[in-house]
Amino acid sequence: xxxxxxxxxxxxxxxxxxxxxxxxxxxxxxxxxxxxxxxxxxxxxxxxxxxxxxxxxxxxxxxxxxxxxxxxxxxxxxxxxxxxxxxxxxxxxxxxxxxxxxxxxxxxxxxxxxxxxxxxxxxxxxxxxxxxxxxxxxxxxxxxxxxxxxxxxxxxxxxxxxxxxxxxxxxxxxxxxxxxxxxxxxxxxxxxxxxxxxxxxxxxxxxxxxxxxxxxxxxxxxxxxxxxxxxxxxxxxxxxxxxxxxxxxxxxxxxxxxxxxxxxxxxxxxxxxxxxxxxxxxxxxxxxxxx
Length: 291
Description:
The protein is mainly β. It has strands spanning 3-7, 11-16, 21-27, 49-50, 61-64, 67-70, 83-85, 91-97, 110-119, 122-131, 136-138, 140-142, 145-147, 159-164, 169-171, 174-175, 178-179, 185-187, 193-194, 205-208, 212-219, 222-231, 235-239, 248-255, 274-276, 281-290. It has a single domain (3-290), classed as Beta-galactosidase, Chain A, domain 5 (Distorted Sandwich). The protein has a nine-stranded antiparallel sheet with strand order 7-8-9-10-26-22-21-14-19, with no helix packed on it. Strands 4, 12, 13, 20, 23 and 24 form a six-stranded antiparallel sheet that branches. The chain has a three-stranded antiparallel sheet with strand order 1-2-3, with no helix packed on it. Strand 23 (235-239) and strand 24 (248-255) form a beta hairpin. It comes from Vagococcus penaei. One of its GO terms (molecular function) is isomerase activity. This is Aldose epimerase.
């Protein structure tokens, strides 16, 4: 396992080659840490990459070409060792390629390239998925967790989420771990929403998104906050623990989603998946800005 550090005069970001995971993002002026540090009493990860699925499959399995494969929640990339490619002071590239081990659970040839680039107070994150030899069916997403409360002396319920653009979005409710498309509602994201534990009573809050979106966690009690900007991601998830006072909130850009209640288990028919022809590529990106 290797650690990679990116820094400039404003910020410092730290990554692990295990899962190509962002594990720290701090301002240099006051050493304020924005990324959840992984206390196992709540949740041990920081900002895992979700690939080749997002969310959970029924019975943790799927069928492809008349063969059944096992796949745990959010896929395997977050638990894989990535290769680090010639990092510089402000850019890091991590790669993961298919292998005999990955093909036991996912019978596709692929390359996943994760790029982080630090620009002043913003970390730009991109995923490039490349199909090799055959078609590729996949989901991918980010799962960054942010410290809330962010500043000592403030409390969780003093923070709120600000939505840009300010408009209503479709909410896709979960029934257990699965998406209930028939019970979709209109979420009042045309105004800010105060953070409270009850928001996460049914696990993640999932919204459909279109085009460019920005989600900011902030508080009137402090000038500090964090903004996540998504580019062409069809879904976003907000998550924290409901039954524990977990001091973090995740904002998750998704190009994929959990199985629906009526899912057949056939990968080729799975809702929200991406498909690539042989020898083609898919690009996704988002950014995190801290202030």
